[in-house]
Amino acid sequence: MFKKILSSLLLASLVSIAYADEALPLASDPALEQRLISISEEMRCLVCQNESLSGSRSELAQDLRREIRDLIRQGKTDAEIRTFMVDRYGDFILYRPPVKPTTWLLWIGPFVLMIAGIMALLMYLRRRNSQVNSVALSDDENKRIDALLREDK
Amino acid sequence: MKAKFIIPLLLFVVLVGFLAVGLNRDPREVPSPLINKPAPAFKVPQLADPNKSFSPEDLKGQVWILNVWASWCVACREEHPMLVELGKSQVAPLIGLDYKDKRADAMEMLARQGNPYNLSAMDNDGRVGINYGVYGVPETYVIDKAGIIRFKQIGPITKDVLDKSIYPLITQLNKA
């Protein structure tokens, strides 16, 4: 029993060592890390596509973060760093696709669909309105309505 | 009156069409922006003899194949017989890029499985890989005489890829 506790304690301490090692780069230059995060949060990790480059622990993501760090140190702007990544991995790496002829449908499509929907709705409503015949009421009927309304009070 | 039923039906068929195409595409296959662009330059040590180096410049004027591999990569083992066949065919120099690997492990794998490469270069820190847009080993590039990337295979080469894409392309590029 005692042995078990001892070994689990030992294991726990090993785990904490591993985490301590992982956090190291953050402390070295907070401003740089902040920029790294803001850039890499907008990028897709290509190995694990549902993770951002900033959050992924895959080896490629780590390498790419190292590469972005180097580019920041070289004084590159955010736009230049994005170009660097897109040149190698394509627009797919960006979470926000750029507006260009091949993505026009993607950007404008929803608005086209919305406008088409509104137009269809308007046309339908107008047609329905014209189908309802307004019937003029006779004097007798008007009197009955008045009487009913008064009763209600 | 009939159009009322036909229009939604047509829209539904179009939607199903889009979904069917989407389902049958591999989301892991990201089209490379490097196709028809010059192969990025690099100069790295050779695997067999780290004192020698390899650079794509060395092969200028030839059609050649760059295969990114590693001893830790399981799919590379699956691909290996195809590479052996490709190497034997002698259609073009087959250069290996040993991606983020330990030299001893890589040498041991080549010794055990056979070495299909004319030579292998070492990409220790993965920087060459990044410049080539590598995100999943194995990847294979066909580079033409002018040093332009003409084809990229992401994932293992299959017999189909070899016969339908790589061999015809190399024959065509060699004629040019």
Structural description of this entry:
Chain A has 153 residues and is mostly helical. Helix content of chain A is 69%, strand content 0%. Chain A contains seven helices and no strands. In chain A, helix 3 (30-40) crosses helix 4 (59-73). Mean pLDDT of chain A is 83; it is low at 17-21. Chain B is an alpha/beta fold and 176 residues long. Chain B has a single domain (29-175), classed as Glutaredoxin (3-Layer(aba) Sandwich), CATH 3.40.30. Helices cover 40% and strands 18% of the residues of chain B. Chain B is built from five helices and seven strands. Chain B has a five-stranded mixed beta sheet with strand order 5-4-3-6-7. In chain B, strands 1-2 form a two-stranded antiparallel ribbon. The A-B interface holds A 46-47, 49, 59-60, 63-64, 67, 86-92 and B 27-28, 30-34, 100, 125-127, 129-133, 135-136.
Q: What is the CATH third-level topology name of the largest domain in chain A?
A: Helicase, Ruva Protein, domain 3
Distance between the termini of chain A: 85 Å
Strand content of chain B: 15-25%
What is the C-level CATH assignment of chain B? Alpha Beta
User: In sequence order, what are the helices and strands of chain A, one letter per element?
Assistant: HHHHHHH
Total strands of chain A: 0
CATH topology (fold) name of chain B? Glutaredoxin
Rg over CA atoms of chain A = 33 Å
How many separate domains of chain A? Answer: 2
Q: Any idea what the shape of chain B is? A: elongated
Alpha-carbon Rg of chain B, integer? 20 Å
For the record, give the distance between the C-alpha atoms at the N and C termini of chain B, rounded to a whole number.
61 Å
Element layout with pairings:
The complex is a heterodimer of chains A (153) and B (176).
Chain A (H helix, E strand, L loop, with lengths): L1 H21 L1 H5 L1 H11 L18 H15 L4 H12 L14 H28 L7 H14 L1
Helix pairs in contact in A: 3-4
Chain B lengths: L1 H22 L20 E2 L7 E2 L9 E6 L4 H16 L4 E6 L3 H11 L5 E5 L3 H5 L7 E5 L5 E6 L4 H17 L1
Parallel strand pairs in B: 3-4, 4-5
Antiparallel strand pairs in B: 1-2, 3-6, 6-7
